[in-house]
């Protein structure tokens, strides 16, 4: 071969390999340009903030593995062009193509078009889509979302009023065996799913949950270490209904060895006060201030997340459960990370939190 023909050969190979990697669009979280991304987090703002003019309740802040801080999205959350819409698009397309190489499940304790709550199922909302190479998992707080696959993308009107969070993480296939185990503890209320037989060996629990068949014994709680496709480490806490306690105080704070500031839905009559009884304390956040300087009270927020009080620990967790007495009996969990950008984004939102009474503080 002459140098020239070798060069041509090389260029041809290069060309082929780039077209192949672009052609086979891998299942992945998608950013706001529709491109694959390792992870994203979004925070939909409540309709009523403390400022005079109410928003639409559809605006949201967005952060991903390539941006470093919250940005107000140029899209509204009901639009298909945003990160959530772009990511879900892959699920709606899979449903239409009926591809036997792809597995998916959508779960929510508040199912679209249904007024019934299922108290026996997990207080947990999310969806996942994967093939034998990789996939994504979204954990969010929006009731009645996403729509049934036959209905296509949309955002429920009931999800406008309050703040909501969502996190999407892209995982290689091997991580879904761990996620399958976590979902067993969740006992999620699944309303759309397809787990073809080729996944039977690696997703046995998900397949049974999908088929509504008999489940193996459920551990009271299980902690999993997960790694995203690009190597970001996550810890995942899953508790079943058998672990009857406040997940934040009794497990997450003590396990992570960090004092936590918690944002959760505090509407019920049985919301729990800040708690300094155990070694690591848990404080309820009272007021949020966004980077745009708008503020809102936790009473207008349906999201569920917590951050380390101290920046040295740098934990952020996003998940399913509220600090409410009756949630001790519900299953669900949290995905946690020490990613610095996620931590700064969430920690800087905390404007005011409720301290413990001196008498209840053990130091
Ligand atoms: C999103 O909601 C806004 C405000 O209600 C509405 O004007 C717009 O048509 C909606 N867009 C989509 C794609 O549904
Ligand atoms: C089905 O899914 C597999 C795995 O993601 C993919 O390689 C293949 O192209 C898909 N087939 C169709 C018809 O979409
Ligand atoms: C704090 O939480 C723990 C664990 O749920 C509980 O046992 C304890 O009674 C709580 N303390 C107060 C003062 O509520
Ligand atoms: C502090 O004490 C007041 C009055 O007794 C009580 O209403 C409140 O719930 C307590 N707060 C905490 C965090 O224990």
TrEMBL record:
Keywords: Hydrolase, Signal. Its EC number is 3.1.22.1. Residues 1-23 form the signal peptide. It is an enzyme of class 3 (hydrolase). It catalyses: Endonucleolytic cleavage to nucleoside 3'-phosphates and 3'-phosphooligonucleotide end-products. One of its GO terms (biological process) is apoptotic DNA fragmentation. GO terms for molecular function: deoxyribonuclease II activity. It holds the Pfam family DNase_II. Belongs to the DNase II family. This is deoxyribonuclease II. It comes from Nothoprocta perdicaria (Chilean tinamou). The lineage of its organism: Eukaryota, Metazoa, Chordata, Craniata, Vertebrata. The gene is DNASE2B.
């Amino acid at each position: 071969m002459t140098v020239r023909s070798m060069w041509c050969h090389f260029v041809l190979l290069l060309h082929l390999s780039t077209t192949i990697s672009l052609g086979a669009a891998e299942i992945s979280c998608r950013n706001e340009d529709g491109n694959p991304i390792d992870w994203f987090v979004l925070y939909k703002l409540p309709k009523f903030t403390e400022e005079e003019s109410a928003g639409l309740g559809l605006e949201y802040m967005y952060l991903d593995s390539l941006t470093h801080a919250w940005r107000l999205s140029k899209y509204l959350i009901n639009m298909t062009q945003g990160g959530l819409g772009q990511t879900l698009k892959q699920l709606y397309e899979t449903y239409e193509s009926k591809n036997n190489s792809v597995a998916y499940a959508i779960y929510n304790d508040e199912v679209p078009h249904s007024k019934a709550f299922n108290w026996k199922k997990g207080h947990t909302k999310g969806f996942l889509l994967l093939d034998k190479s990789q996939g994504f998992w979204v954990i969010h707080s929006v009731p009645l979302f996403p729509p049934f696959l036959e209905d296509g993308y949309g955002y429920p009107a009931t999800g406008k009023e309050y703040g909501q969070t969502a996190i999407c993480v892209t995982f290689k296939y091997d991580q879904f065996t761990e996620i399958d185990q976590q979902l067993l503890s969740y006992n999620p209320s699944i309303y759309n799913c397809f787990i073809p037989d080729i996944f039977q060996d690696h997703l046995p629990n998900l397949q049974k949950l999908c088929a509504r068949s008999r489940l193996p014994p459920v551990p009271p709680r299980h902690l999993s270490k997960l790694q995203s496709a690009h190597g970001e480490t996550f810890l995942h806490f899953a508790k079943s209904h058998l672990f009857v306690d406040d997940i934040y105080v009794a497990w997450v704070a003590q396990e992570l060895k960090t004092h936590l500031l918690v944002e959760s839905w505090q509407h019920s009559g049985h919301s729990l006060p800040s708690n300094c009884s155990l070694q690591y304390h848990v404080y309820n956040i009272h007021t949020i201030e966004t980077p745009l300087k708008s503020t809102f009270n936790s009473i207008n927020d349906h999201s569920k997340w917590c951050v380390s009080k101290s920046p040295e620990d740098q934990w952020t967790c996003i998940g399913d459960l509220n600090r409410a007495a009756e949630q001790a009996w519900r299953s669900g969990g949290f995905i946690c990370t020490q990613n610095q950008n996620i931590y700064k984004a969430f920690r800087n939102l905390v404007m005011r939190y409720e301290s413990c009474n001196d008498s209840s503080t053990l130091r």
